[in-house]
User: What shape does this take?
Amino acid sequence: MSLTLNACGNDDKEGKPNAGQSASQADPGQQNGRTGENSKPKSPDGAKVIATLQGRNGIVLDITSATRSAGGFVTVNGSLKNTSDRSTSETQEWSGPELNVIRGAGGSSLGGATLVDEKEKKRYYTLRDTENRPLASTGLGTVEANSEQKVYMQFPAPPKSTTRVDLQIPTFQSVALTLTDG
Assistant: This one.
């Protein structure tokens, strides 16, 4: 199944403007790669971190929102951080295995992310524009040491009855997200 959307792609490194930044590296309520509901840290700009994904080599992705829009898509915003003292360029896998997405993004992106609806047994891939660019943060070739950048990903929305999904990104632990209406 192929979806195309001729809309609001964002190719800059900054991602969506309303993503937050977190001062915390991990959620104390995390168990088995999934984030618990207690003790959510807040970012310096006041955005609440709703989930944290742990990656390799000190890479952390704090999720600040997972919003379902009336337009039929879900936007996930967050802050990608390199908490180590070494830069990393091991970002290519985040684009996923689909060559069209890798070519469309012009390199590393979060285009390999998926939302999994376990209840309906469906997987939702990042949306793409008419030129096959993923509607997700791109230009993630090297993540500098001790850096932080805002990121986003957009997906087709699951049915209204689905309020909880798993976010999966290659090389990161998966995490459960509760969808909110925008």
Notes: The helical segments are 99-105. The first helix runs from residue 99 to 105. The beta strands are 51-54, 59-68, 73-82, 114-117, 122-125, 147-156, 164-168, 175-178, 180-181.
